[in-house]
Design goal:
Number of helices: 8
Helix content: 40-55%
Largest sheet: 7 strands, mixed
Strand content: 15-25%
Distance between the termini: 26 Å
Structural class: alpha/beta
Number of strands: 7
Radius of gyration: 17 Å
Order of helices and strands: HHEEHEHEHEHEHEH
Length: 241
């Protein structure tokens, strides 16, 4: 436990310093040039350093299902390390990766500027008008050739079982007629144990599954599309357990 505490503290300090020191000049460069590649490379290196310090290894399975262009990657969510793990697993698509994220994260210093420059889209839970405006914004970004990754459960599952899905990520895929790639993350709950803020050494597997087409489907078919994605994810989780 002492080693885990030391590693967690070291990672927190190093990543925070990386954000504060590297963040502002990289953000300025991105704003001046309009080229986000350096920003994404800097973020990816920050994730790699943090994971290296806490001895987390990210393993990618089903990489053949990664594809450039407008795609929604829909992942399960059971740990705080899931988000950086999926982001890092999508690095071959940088800088054309966007994130649909909780508006509460806009309180984070420096990172919020990076979110805005990168084109990430905040969603305010409980604000229906803002949520639908965010979905429209994300759908337009998809049409422009960007990929998104979303956590359709909206929050972490404490048991590892899938929670009910929010519809926003699926609606934006339908609006843009973009395929949905289900993603299963495993190992995160071993890295961050229930009730503990410490991060433990672990191997996190990010598994990309075959894409599910939305071509020809409309908003009225959203429940059908959600059910198809959920069924695939539940079957994969059952096999993993």
């Amino acid at each position: 436990m002492i080693l885990a505490a030391l590693r967690t503290a070291a990672a927190a300090v190093v990543v925070s310093l990386w954000v504060l020191i590297a963040g502002p000049p990289v953000l300025l460069w991105t704003m001046l040039t309009g080229r986000p590649a350096l920003l994404y490379a800097t973020a990816g290196l920050g994730v790699r350093m943090g994971f290296g310090l806490v001895r987390i290894v990210v393993r990618i399975a089903g990489g053949e299902h990664l594809q450039p262009g407008p795609v929604v990657y829909a992942s399960n969510h059971s740990s705080n390390v899931d988000s950086p793990a999926v982001f890092y697993a999508l690095r071959s698509l940088f800088p054309r990766v966007r994130v649909l994220y909780k508006a509460e994260l806009r309180k984070l210093p420096v990172l919020v500027w990076a979110f805005d420059v990168a084109g990430f889209v905040p969603v305010a839970r409980g604000d229906r008008d803002q949520s639908w405006a965010a979905v429209d914004q994300a759908a337009e970004a998809l049409r422009q050739g960007n990929a998104f990754f979303v956590f359709p459960e909206g929050t972490r599952s404490r048991t590892g079982q899938l929670l009910p899905f929010k519809k926003g990520g699926f609606v934006m895929a339908l609006k843009a007629q973009a395929p949905i790639v289900p993603v299963i993350v495993s190992g995160g709950r071993q890295a961050m144990r229930k009730g503990s803020p410490l991060i433990w050494p672990a191997t996190i597997t990010v598994r990309f599954l075959p894409a599910i087409s939305t071509t020809g489907f409309s908003y009225e078919d959203r429940d059908l599309v959600i059910a198809r994605v959920r069924n695939v994810m539940e079957a994969e989780l059952a096999d993993a357990n």
